[in-house]
Amino acid sequence: MKALTYHGPHHVSVDTMPDPALEAADDIILRVTATAICGSDLHLYRGKIPGTHHGDIFGHEFMGGSGGSRFRGHRGPQRRSGGYPVCHRLRETASFVACSSMPPAKAPIAARERRSNRKGISPPAALFGYSDLYGGIPGGQAEYVRVPKANTGPFKVPDTLPDEKVLFLSDILPTAWQAVKNAEVKPGSSVAIFGAGPVGLLCASCARLNGAEQIFIIDHNDYRLDFAQQRYGAIPINFDHP
Question: Where does the Alcohol dehydrogenase-like N-terminal domain lie (predicted)?
């Protein structure tokens, strides 16, 4: 398969890599149909994250399907809560959004990291494509990706929704929504958002959905501030031009 791989600070390339393989009963192999670059991926790209090695595959924001006839995910048991399935079993035509964080307690970790864990404590979580420090799981900036704990992590999305309307659910939209909820934004609130990047713009959207009356957004990129003003009715503040 083709995948974006790391070869040292400021050096990545699209290389031919081995296809992923099923390793556990609740794994699936996902055929990636859409993926995104997170701002945090730049820390990896710049060589700032320990445990990042040559050949590592980045990417923790992705979605896709089961891969058709080439790969068939193992049908692990469904987990149920209150009689309702938490995650659908894999079907050949199903589409999923892959969660950026693995479920707690049993997330896999690279062998060398496990050896250094002398007390044998299970890692609390793992992150796709984000170094051995965060579990050593290959990421989704590739044609295919192995998704561990697939009977609890990914969830099925309707076939009627296009990828570009769903991909943000893998990371960036929940980040913005959680920020707005943590700030207890409610009808009539006045909100200040520092940074009009993708997360900041989605914070403006979520704040408006939660009833914010005034939204101030602070940045120094006029095109982003203009977008926030036009799309969300935000009040732009350019700190380079007070």
Answer: 25-64
